[in-house]
UniProtKB/TrEMBL annotation:
Descriptive protein name: G protein-coupled receptor
Main location as per UniProt: membrane
Entry keyword annotation includes Hydrolase: no
GO cellular component: membrane
Membrane topology (UniProt): Multi-pass membrane protein
Transmembrane region(s): 12-35, 56-75, 107-132, 153-178, 190-212
Length: 241
């Protein structure tokens, strides 16, 4: 008869995977915020952005934002990394009944609320500058191309940011209402609430993939606007003269 040894799984690995998933979700929100600031800079100073833009600087800022948000979120989720210590038996992820976790949860909720507000404000400013503001009649070909590129990126970021903000508001509102109704929840109730509030963020990568594929398919099937091309060449000819 075959005998198999029992595989013992440390519960900290399970909690660590949830920490990684939720931290990655928060880091993606800050990445969208970095892209929104880039589009805002390109909309306010299009000529300067066209001449002095640096891909290396953009990638460095984006990676720094991801790494900083990921490290800060992991620190709050794991109670200042005590989750990964050898005898961290009393640590439970996002359980506010434990006094050591209450401060981290408050800090994390405040960070999510502030980043959501800043993201929406910057994105709506981008939308105003690129769509509602009257275009400059004597713009060069490079500036016209920059504005068209801004419009394309803002149209992709706007539904993603709105969806992410609604998911954040849903989770925080659900936690706040639950704490008002039940001040001392049991661990099972706390875990059920956590699963319900995070099921939509878990599906967010699928929704994001669907939206990107839809945008790519729509742009691939779009016929070129030859009138716009002629206007750009006419603007380029005037700038040369």
């Amino acid at each position: 008869r075959l005998r198999f040894d029992c595989f013992l799984l440390d519960f900290r690995f399970i909690l660590m995977t949830r920490c990684v998933g939720m931290s990655s979700f928060l880091a993606s929100q800050h990445l969208i915020l970095v892209l929104s600031f880039e589009r805002l800079y390109a909309a306010i100073f299009p000529a300067h952005f066209e001449k002095n833009s640096s891909k290396f600087l953009s990638v460095t800022i984006a990676l720094s934002s991801l790494a900083g948000t990921f490290a800060f979120s992991m620190m709050q989720f794991s109670n200042n990394f005590r989750l990964f210590h050898g005898q961290a038996i009393a640590v439970a992820l996002f359980n506010t009944n434990i006094p050591d976790n209450q401060h981290g949860c408050k800090v994390l909720m405040n960070m999510i609320a502030i980043s959501n507000c800043i993201s929406l404000i910057v994105l709506f400013i981008d939308f105003y500058l690129n769509f509602l503001r009257k275009p400059v009649g004597s713009a060069s070909l490079a500036i016209s191309y920059q504005f068209s590129e801004n419009r394309r990126i803002v149209l992709i970021l706007l539904p993603i940011e709105l969806t992410q903000t609604l998911m954040g508001l849903f989770g925080t509102s659900l936690f706040a209402m639950f704490r008002k109704v039940n001040a001392r929840p049991t661990p099972i109730e706390q875990q059920i609430l956590l699963e319900i509030s995070t099921i939509i963020p878990t599906c967010f990568p699928l929704m994001l993939t669907f939206w990107i594929r839809r945008s790519i398919a729509r742009n691939a099937n779009r016929t070129p606007n030859f009138d716009l091309v002629e206007d750009r060449f006419e603007s380029l000819r005037k700038s040369w003269n």
